[in-house]
Amino acid sequence: MFTGIVEELGEVTAVENLGDASRFKLRGPVVTEGAQHGDSIAVNGVCLTVVEHEGDEFTADVMAETLNRSSLGALTVGSRVNLERPMAVGARLGGHIVQGHVDGTGEVLERKPSENWEIVKVSLPADLARYVVEKGSITVDGISLTVVEAGPDYFTVSLIPTTLDLTTLGVKQPGDPVNLEVDVVAKYVERLLGDRAQGAGK
């Protein structure tokens, strides 16, 4: 489990095509400290497993399903990525509960800079819109953010200077894809209420 608080901006240093999968090598001095084979690291919000670790780099295999359902397939050598290690038991939950399981992808539609923050508008797949509410939580490229406006096919978030400086959202431009993970609590509530309604109808 993750919190959506990005620990560092990493970099893709190699991409190997394995046919029905890809192997990424990524550099991240902070997240690789003490890393071991089998550990989990979130890359742009996608939970990946460390295959190899040497120095400040690690490799991770990404299967076709993940490449198709996320924006990782668009990464190339030199791409910057948001990196986060799993939350330690007993640590503070600085963002919200993030599983590292991408629900879909959106696209940066618009950026509106102001003096001290920036509003970013992101497209929202129709099947995810019901889980996104104003002042609710959403994960964008692994970043825990608060929804400012929730539209039928988009949402907006307000980014403070720290987020702009330390994450990929500081450089994403209109047209760029982003990974989205909605609040898992909303999905569980929907399922529970649906099961209850079906039970009442029997």
UniProtKB/TrEMBL annotation:
Assembly, per entry: Homotrimer.
GO biological process, one term: riboflavin biosynthetic process
Pathway annotation from the record: Cofactor biosynthesis; riboflavin biosynthesis; riboflavin from 2-hydroxy-3-oxobutyl phosphate and 5-amino-6-(D-ribitylamino)uracil: step 2/2
Protein name in UniProt: Riboflavin synthase
Database matches in SUPFAM superfamilies: Riboflavin synthase domain-like
Keyword list, A-Z: Repeat, Riboflavin biosynthesis, Transferase
All copies of domain Lumazine-binding, residue ranges: 1-96, 97-193
PANTHER family: RIBOFLAVIN SYNTHASE (PTHR21098:SF12), RIBOFLAVIN SYNTHASE ALPHA CHAIN (PTHR21098)
CDD domains, per database record: Riboflavin_synthase_like (cd00402)
InterPro entries assigned: ATP_synth_asu-like_sf, Lumazine-bd, Lumazine-bd_dom, Riboflavin_synthase-like_b-brl
Entry's Gene Ontology molecular function annotations: riboflavin synthase activity
Any matching Pfam family: Lum_binding
Lumazine-binding repeat locations: 1-96, 97-193
EC nos: 2.5.1.9
Function statement: Catalyzes the dismutation of two molecules of 6,7-dimethyl-8-ribityllumazine, resulting in the formation of riboflavin and 5-amino-6-(D-ribitylamino)uracil.
Enzyme class: transferase
Recorded catalytic activity of this chain's protein: 2 6,7-dimethyl-8-(1-D-ribityl)lumazine + H(+) = 5-amino-6-(D-ribitylamino)uracil + riboflavin
